[in-house]
Amino acid sequence: MSTTEPDALLGPADIRELAATLGVRPTKQRGQNFVIDANTVRRIVRTAEVRPDDVVVEVGPGLGSLTLALLEAADRVVAVEIDDVLAGALPATVAARMPERADRFTLVHSDAMQVRELPGPPPTALVANLPYNVAVPVLLTMLDRFPTIERTLVMVQAEVADRLAARPGNKVYGVPSVKANWYTDVKRAGSIGRKVFWPAPNVDSGLVSLVRRAEPVATTASKAEVFAVVDAAFAQRRKTLRAALSGWAGSAPAAEAALVAAGISPQARGEALTVEEFAAIAENKPALPESDSAGSDSAGSDSAGSAE
């Protein structure tokens, strides 16, 4: 672990000075809210249980508040930044404030949704202050594309944190909850107030811990097949599964047959099911008539991709 000076991290004055120098104004379009409190980023790193041998990937590093705190604790940090100005400035900020760790830092200038490989050793952890408007798709994409990520801690809008960590039966349990559980064990890991950000958002934030499942969901169905059931179930969440899955199965009676075969009541609703139960439904999808199968195969591959 690095023994950096206390002032290596960015404070409120540092953030504003950097932003002014770069001509940066946080934009709502990209959901930018920069953390200006050093104690908060150190708390995030502690909560994430970052280890000296970790290779941490950070999405949306911004001006580098969390990046510097991660470099204090991890072996390496790979930051993925889409903004041209921020991506161009961050390596210089790291070199100026933490020169002894600069060779442990790599910047990937890209949209995280487009990244399919990262430089250096495989990442073992994901720690990020995710932009509110893309938090869930970015999180699920990173978990899917980088299976070596064992531990994740993300700071997201409090409402998003609640949805990710919700359990079956909770009124906010839905698609993000189930899909996150496909990859990980999820739990709420704390709350973050508004005053540690610049500009201060009009909502509170929450920390979510996601630990990669020791064993994947036991199913013969593919991820795409399971996610298709999840998407269909919550597209009409107030309907019973018999009705909500009628399009997915081909008809309401076919949906009922699949549900019964999976040991699930046709009158149940999606919000009551675990990811394992959605997988059981996917395993029992009725075979479509041969005349329908060719068209449905191509459509199915598209919908599976969008389900992520």
What is this structure, in a nutshell?
The protein contains 13 helices and nine strands. With 308 residues, the protein is of the alpha/beta class.
- List the secondary-structure elements in sequence, H or E: HEHEHEHEEHEHHEEEHHHHHH
The fraction of residues assigned to DSSP E strands is: 15-25%
Q: Which structural class fits the helix and strand makeup?
A: alpha/beta
Cα-atom radius of gyration: 21 Å
Write down the overall geometry.
Answer: elongated
Largest pleated sheet = 7 strands, mixed
User: Could you give the order of strands across the largest sheet?
Assistant: 4-3-2-5-6-9-7
Taking the alpha carbons of the first and last residues, their distance comes to: 36 Å
User: Roughly what is the average pLDDT, rounded to an integer?
Assistant: 91
Q: How many helix segments?
A: 13
Are there runs of 5+ residues with pLDDT below 50, and where?
1-5, 293-308
Can you tell me about this structure?
This protein has 308 residues and is α/β, with parallel strands linked by helices. It is built from 13 helices and nine strands. The strands form two sheets. It has a seven-stranded mixed β-sheet with strand order 4-3-2-5-6-9-7, sandwiched between helices. Helix 3 links the parallel strand 2 and strand 3. The relative contact order is 0.10.
